[in-house]
């Protein structure tokens, strides 16, 4: 669907609307709202005056709608509901939150019919007459994509707070209500097509990840020879294993050590620091880590990270993120590792690093940790529990053969995952570019053929 530009344009002094269709109007963003109302967090749900409370975590930033798959109920008294109950078509503005990697100020549309309020980190925007809610959603998405909200942030470290008064004083260009409706319908249609393609790619990636785990699990628990003699491991979740393999608890294969635990003032300078993020979802530790810590000579001996070491995540809010393992393939000189990690250092005659990289990714280990983990408010892995982990130990030459085989197979799977991730990135970039072109008037979609849409 090739789109042409408008017949004629005028130039403006607005950096983000430098040239607009001549019949569009310039105005302050605030004129698109009838009312702005901050949200409320209320109290713990009590079964009496419970109400859905939309959080920033419920923002679907791709579809620019509410994701109601994990809604939160809070006790909201009647007086706190006044002026805060959402109605279909309201816009929700993230006014607090963000972080180092994500700017505050995202806007989505509330397209639901159930009663709800927003959390205190979100403001409800009631759309003014002569403006179309869905169009404004896309307009805000464009402004967010060019980081316009950055100018309105009061605090740029820690929790970001958006000065909504400053933000809504920004100047925008906008077409008539009829044209807003047409542009929004066009974008709904086109972005739905893109989202469908993206979702298919995500499903494929999920299947590839499952295939990777299945291949790894089969190889590191059953070996590579289908006709090998098997024995009962006497461990329910391991089942039968090759007869000539040893089954030993981790405690007999090496030593465990918790990480360094010092104050925040020691971080950001000094010597290399291996963090939780370096371990999480990485089969191998990065060869060079970005973190720094002012560690002593004794710290760097006690909390060193050497070739063959295996680091496990020790704490998390969910069991699924506990005991994620990453192997050090080459010593990180003068380093120390985080207190949220446990280091396992294998004996020389046991696990080799190439086998460890795959063994501790196998799906059956999750069954062990899920069964044994005690979950209170945060899941926590103790050394004692980790030491009790049953480990299958093939001869070292067989460990190497398994690792070599998996290296080839997993590399191909990883390559397919990367290609699909790159495709998703390109589709997302195209979606952003399409929204930008439509709401800035670079393309004229007034005569575009669009299937009927049920748009709020």
UniProtKB/TrEMBL annotation:
SUPFAM superfamilies in alphabetical order: DNA methylase specificity domain
CDD domains: RMtype1_S_EcoKI_StySPI-TRD2-CR2_like (cd17517), RMtype1_S_TRD-CR_like (cd16961)
GO MF: DNA binding; endonuclease activity
InterPro entries: Restrct_endonuc_typeI_TRD, Restrct_endonuc_typeI_TRD_sf, Type-I_RE_S_subunit
Residue span, Type I restriction modification DNA specificity domain: 96-202, 242-428
Hydrolase recorded as keyword: yes
Record carries keyword Nuclease: yes
Pfam families in the cross-refs: Methylase_S (PF01420)
Keywords of the record: DNA-binding, Endonuclease, Hydrolase, Nuclease, Restriction system
Example GO biological process: DNA restriction-modification system
Family: Belongs to the type-I restriction system S methylase family.
Name this protein carries in UniProt: Restriction endonuclease subunit S
């Amino acid at each position: 669907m090739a789109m042409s530009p408008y017949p004629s344009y005028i130039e403006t002094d607005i950096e983000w609307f430098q040239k607009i269709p001549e019949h569009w109007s310039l105005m302050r963003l605030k004129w698109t709202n009838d009312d702005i109302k901050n949200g409320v967090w209320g109290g713990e749900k009590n079964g009496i005056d419970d109400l859905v409370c939309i959080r920033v975590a419920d923002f679907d930033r791709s579809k620019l709608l509410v994701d109601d798959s994990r809604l939160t109920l809070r006790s909201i008294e009647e007086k706190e509901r006044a002026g805060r109950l959402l109605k279909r078509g309201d816009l929700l503005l993230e006014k607090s939150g963000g972080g180092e990697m994500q700017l505050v100020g995202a806007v989505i549309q509330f397209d639901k019919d159930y009663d709800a309020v927003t959390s205190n980190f979100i403001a409800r925007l009631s759309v003014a007459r002569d403006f179309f809610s869905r169009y404004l959603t896309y307009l805000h998405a464009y402004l967010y994509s060019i980081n316009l909200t950055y100018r309105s942030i009061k605090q740029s470290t820690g929790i970001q707070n958006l000065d909504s008064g400053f933000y809504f004083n920004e100047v925008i260009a906008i077409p008539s209500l009829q044209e807003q409706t047409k542009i929004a319908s066009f974008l709904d249609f086109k972005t739905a097509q893109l989202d469908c393609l993206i979702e298919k790619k995500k499903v494929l990636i999920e299947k590839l990840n499952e295939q990777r785990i299945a291949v790894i699990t089969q190889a590191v628990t059953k070996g590579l020879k289908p006709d090998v003699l098997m024995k009962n491991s006497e461990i329910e979740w391991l089942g039968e294993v090759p007869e000539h393999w040893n089954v030993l608890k981790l405690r007999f294969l090496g030593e465990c050590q918790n990480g360094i635990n010092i104050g925040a003032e020691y971080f950001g300078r000094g010597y290399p620091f291996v963090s939780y993020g370096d371990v999480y979802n990485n089969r191998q530790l990065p060869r060079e880590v970005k973190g720094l810590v002012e560690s002593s000579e004794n710290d760097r001996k006690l909390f060193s990270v050497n070739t063959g070491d295996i680091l496990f995540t020790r704490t998390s809010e969910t069991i699924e993120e506990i005991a994620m393992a990453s192997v050090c393939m080459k010593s990180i000189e003068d380093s120390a590792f985080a207190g949220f990690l446990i280091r396992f250092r294998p004996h020389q005659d046991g696990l080799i690093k190439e086998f460890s990289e795959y063994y501790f990714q196998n799906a059956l280990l999750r069954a062990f940790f899920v069964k044994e983990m005690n979950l209170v408010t945060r899941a926590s892995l103790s050394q004692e529990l980790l030491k009790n982990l049953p480990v299958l130990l093939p001869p070292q030459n067989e460990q190497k053969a398994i690792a070599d085989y998996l290296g080839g197979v997993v590399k191909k799977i990883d390559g397919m995952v990367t290609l699909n991730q790159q495709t998703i990135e390109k589709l997302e970039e195209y979606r952003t570019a399409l929204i930008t072109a439509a709401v800035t008037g670079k393309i004229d979609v007034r005569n575009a053929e669009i299937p009927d849409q049920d748009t709020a």
